[in-house]
C-alpha cells in the first residue's frame, strides 16, 4: 500500500500541473529571501519569507483536493485551496505546538535531574518526532473529511496506531526520500559553490587543518556559498514538496479502513401519544 501510493504520487506529478504550485512557491520564497538577505538584511528577508510562507497551506490544501476528487482541474484546486486553507493550517500549528510543548517539558524535567543541555535536547527531539508522526495525517483529514481540529488529530492517531506494518513502511519510505533529498541537495550545492571552494583544492592537509573557526565561518558565509545553499534547497523544494504532499494524501486515501468507526449513540426508545407528546420507555 505504501509503495503503491508512492507510484500514484509520481503519477499525479506527471498529469496535473497544479500540484507543482506548492514546490514552485516554496522555491520562489527561498530565492526571494536570499535576494533580500543580500540586498537589505536578514530581518527583512526572514519577515517577508514568513509572510509569504502563509500562502503555502492553501496550495497544499488544493493539492489534497485534486487527489481527493480525482480531478486535475483548477476549479477543484481553487475550491479546496480557499475552503481548506485554515483546515490545513490550524491542525499543522496545533500538532507542532503539542510536540513542542511535550518535548520542552521532557527536556526541562531531565535538566532538573541533572542531565546536560545537549543530552536533554536530544531526548526532547526523540519525543518531538513521534508526536509529529502520530499526528501526521491530521491536516489531510481536516481538509478532505472536513473534520474539526481535535477530531482530525484523533483520526490521525487512529490511522497510525491501527496501520502497524503498512504505516511503518510509509514512514520508512519518507525517510528514504529525505535521504535522497539530502544527496541531491548536496550535489546541487557543490555545483553552485564549486568556484567558492576552488582554493581548497590547492591547499595541503596541514593548511586545511590550520584554518581557524573564524576563517571557516567567513568562507561559509560568502555570498557565493550562501546562494548555493539557497539554490540547492530551492531546487529540491520544486520536486520534493509536491512529492511529499502527494504521497501523504495518496496514502491517506487508502487508510480509511484503519480508522475505527465512531461509536453510534443508541436512540432512546419511546412513543408519541395521540396529542403528539413523546414518552420514553423505562
Automatic annotation (TrEMBL):
Keywords: Membrane, Transmembrane, Transmembrane helix. The keyword Membrane applies. The chain crosses the membrane at residues 18-37, 43-68, 89-111, 123-144, 165-194, 225-247. Coiled coil: none annotated. The keyword Membrane applies. This is DUF4013 domain-containing protein.
